[in-house]
Structure formats: structure tokens, C-alpha cells
Design brief:
The protein is an alpha+beta fold. The chain contains ten helices and 13 strands.
């Protein structure tokens, strides 16, 4: 990538994760400016295509989270405009963002994942206990509830349907919550996520000090190798490219793939920079590598 390339960081957007995206985009733009002088920020709205047509960037760094930005919509627009972009392509973004499509993919590729069922709004009886009720097409743990008492199930279903018309109920797996960044088929060091209270919800994700992030996962070297191999398989199964982050639950005997995040957060509490730091890769360098990975599906 040429040093004088015109780079546009697309951030903000119109999803429930807008505030996180604003932070991610600003952080990434600031990091890019240390290596590239022509960096601009564009807040994504329905006039995004017009803004890009005027700016004429050489590439776009996508720092959007959630609907429109992480689900293949913006990716499809950039494909039509012929502007290379970071992150997964159109189909891979759509598959990974929709937890139901992702489940089908994991199962088709023989990857271990918790049992699940699709819910209706009037469902009153949980198919599993304990269970996790989650909107199929949201990120940042928005609308997700862990149900351990049957009396809380109906409220969890109602809450999830506020955020999506497609809702899943998943078997709750007790274990270590691990996340593994993968870039271009290379697994980075995993991180053990330990919230100080409750589960890893929106508040615990984005409030400093609410969660411990441990680079020492306590896994044996053989299990660590198996974990990284599984993360790369999930990345490949969904058709990812550039940077993605794979969430996995580890029990004493087994790993379970939970989801694939195609545009990981890049805030002060985000996990990709923490993992990269163990490899000696600075925030500035990992953002540069992400920008340099910009490409198109159809070229």
C-alpha cells in the first residue's frame, strides 16, 4: 500500500453499536495517521455512497459494528463501487453476523458448537436449561441473557425480540470464555475473558475495570494448539479474510465455537490489541496491517 494512499475510515453507523463504532473508528484513524497522511473519517448513514463518490478513497477501513456495517451491506456497496475494504467479504460478513447462518456453517464443517433452537415470540418453555437467549443479528452481547431459572425465560425471550425478529436459544455451556483473533489464517494468542460479575455483557465489555483479560489461559500446550487450530477452522469455514475474532468456550474436555466476529472492536478495552501485544505488535502496527489487507471479493 502506497504511503500516500487516500484512506477512509468508515465508522459510527446506524446500529445499536454506534457508540462502540465511533470509538473504534477514531482510534484506528489516529493510529493510521502515524503512517499515512491522507486519512479521513466518514460517519456511515444512508448518504454514505454519495460521500465516498466525492472523496474517492483508494481503500476503506471498516470500523462499523452491527447492522449495515458488519452484515455484508456496506461490503456489497463497496464491491459495486470498486473500493477495496478491510474485513470479511459480502457473503462471509452475512454468514458470520447472522448467528443462525453461522450455526449452520459450524455444523456443516463439523465444528463443535452448543445445541440450539430457533424461537417464536410466544415460546414459554425453554428447550434447554440453563440456556442462552440471543438475537440472531446483533453484536456486543446486545439483547443476550443467560437464563438459569425458568421463571426468567419469558422475559429473556421478550428482550431478545426487541432487537431482532430472529432469536435463538442456545444450550448454556459452563466453562472458560476464550477469544482468539485470527488474521490471514494465523491465530493470535487467546485471551481468557473473566467478568468480575455476571456474564460478558455490554456493560462488562465496554466499562474499564469490569472484566479481567488474561493472556495466561491455563491451557496445556496441546490444548492451546487444538484451540488455535479450531479458531482457524471457524475463520475459514465462514470465509473470513483480514482480521476476525473467534469466541470459544472451553470446558475440561471440549471446545465449543460460539461465534465469529468479522469486525472486532478497537476500543481501549478491545481484545485484538491485547492479543497482538503479546506478539510484540503495537496498536499502530496491527491497524496498519489491517489497512494493508484491504481487498475486494471480485478482484
Amino acid at each position: 500500500m502506497d504511503k500516500n494512499s487516500k484512506i477512509c475510515v468508515i465508522y459510527g453507523g446506524m446500529s445499536a453499536e454506534r457508540e462502540v463504532s465511533l470509538k473504534s473508528g477514531k482510534n484506528m484513524a489516529d493510529a493510521l495517521l502515524k503512517n499515512f497522511p491522507n486519512v479521513s473519517l466518514i460517519d456511515a448513514d444512508f448518504s454514505l455512497a454519495e460521500k465516498l463518490a466525492v472523496l474517492k478513497p483508494d481503500l476503506c477501513v471498516i470500523a462499523l459494528h452491527g447492522t449495515y456495517g458488519e452484515d455484508g451491506c456496506v461490503q456489497g456497496m463497496l464491491e459495486m463501487m470498486g473500493i477495496p475494504y478491510t474485513g470479511a467479504g459480502v457473503a462471509a460478513s452475512a454468514v458470520a453476523f447472522d448467528k443462525l447462518l453461522a450455526k449452520h456453517t459450524f455444523i456443516d464443517y463439523g465444528l463443535p458448537t452448543p445445541k440450539y433452537t430457533i424461537l417464536k415470540e410466544d415460546d414459554k418453555q425453554p428447550p434447554f436449561m440453563p440456556c442462552v437467549v440471543k438475537p440472531a443479528r446483533q453484536g456486543s452481547s446486545i439483547g443476550i441473557r443467560i437464563v438459569k431459572d425458568i421463571k426468567d425465560y419469558a422475559a429473556a425471550v421478550e428482550e431478545a425480540f426487541k432487537y431482532d425478529s430472529k432469536v435463538l436459544c442456545e444450550e448454556f455451556i459452563e466453562g472458560k470464555e476464550l477469544t482468539i483473533p485470527v488474521m490471514d489464517m494465523q491465530a493470535f494468542p487467546p485471551i481468557w475473558i473473566r467478568p468480575k460479575k455476571g456474564f460478558y455483557n455490554y456493560e462488562n465489555k465496554y466499562t474499564a475495570g469490569m472484566t479481567e483479560y488474561l493472556l495466561d489461559t491455563g491451557l496445556s500446550s496441546s490444548r492451546l494448539k487444538s484451540l488455535k487450530k479450531l479458531a482457524v477452522k471457524a475463520y475459514s469455514a465462514c470465509g473470513c479474510r483480514s482480521m476476525a475474532r473467534i469466541d470459544i468456550i472451553a470446558t475440561d474436555r471440549k471446545f465449543y465455537v460460539i461465534e465469529v466476529n468479522t469486525i472486532p472492536g478497537m476500543t481501549a478495552t478491545s481484545l485484538v490489541p491485547k492479543s497482538a501485544s503479546k506478539l510484540g505488535i503495537s496498536f499502530e502496527d496491527i491497524v496498519k496491517r489491517i489497512a494493508e489487507s484491504a481487498s475486494l471479493d471480485n478482484k
